[in-house]
Amino acid sequence: MIFSTGQRVVFIGDSITDCDRRGAAPPYGDGYVELVRSLVVARHPELGLSWVNRGVGGDTVRDLAARWEADAIGTAPDWLSVMIGINDVWHAFGSQPRKAVPLDEYATTLRTLLRRAVDRTGCRLIVAEPYIIEPDRAEPQRAASDRYGLVAREIGAEFRAVVVRTQDAFDEVLRSTTPADWADDRIHPNRPGHAVIAQAFLRAIGYQL
Fold it and tell me: Which active-site residues does the annotation give?
């Protein structure tokens, strides 16, 4: 397992990370962050890890940039986990296309933010790819999401980050299920859907029972 004694693990991203942490389920939310935290703490209580959730619903990488100083650098992470890109894609297919973030801007901004965090805090990185719970790879939003996911993966590799393959995790369970089993809108997971993300995260960090 990659975490060491006394480290601070910070999660930042959009509503999937937020998951009501600013509302009914403070301070970690009621999604994959809390599942990961609970399982790691239960397995490794001796590490004395501290956990911070800085997800904000609706965020694109532009929104992340606006609050990066306070919510990423200011939390002094030893490990910084970033999941961003879902809204950057989603807006292009919804009612607010002006909020969509083009792929080149997404890549440039994400790379700049990660570099700033590493240079300022010395943290190590975990990059979770954006996803959509859609098995048809030719479906337009799925195809676009895959392009953003590939960019996130490549940037993660540049920084020698731990990469969480969230799309692969959903593709695996979709072999025997439908998108509605995991989310009403193909994006915001139910509890089992968050468990799919949490399992992918735990595999990536080397968690073992």
Answer: 15, 185, 188
Q: Distance between CA 111 and CA 53 in Å, rounded?
A: 21
112-153: per-residue pLDDT in tens? Answer: 999 999 999 999 999 999 999 999 999 999 999 999 999 999
At 35-94, the pLDDT tens digits run: 999 999 999 999 999 999 999 999 999 999 999 999 999 999 999 999 999 999 999 998
User: What backbone phi and psi angles, to 5 degrees, belong to 55?
Assistant: -75, 145
| Token pair for 4 | 């060491």
Closest to 110 (Cα-Cα) out of 171, 155, 70, 167: 155
Name which of 82, 31, 77 is nearest 60 in CA terms: 82
Please name each of the domains of the chain with its CATH number: 8-204 (3.40.50.1110)
Q: How far apart are CA 68 and CA 63, in angstroms?
A: 9
Q: Whole-model pTM above 0.90? A: yes
Sheet containing 50-55: which strands, arranged edge to edge? 50-55, 8-13, 79-83, 124-128, 162-164
Q: Answer whether 14's CB lies under 8 Å from 86's CB.
A: yes
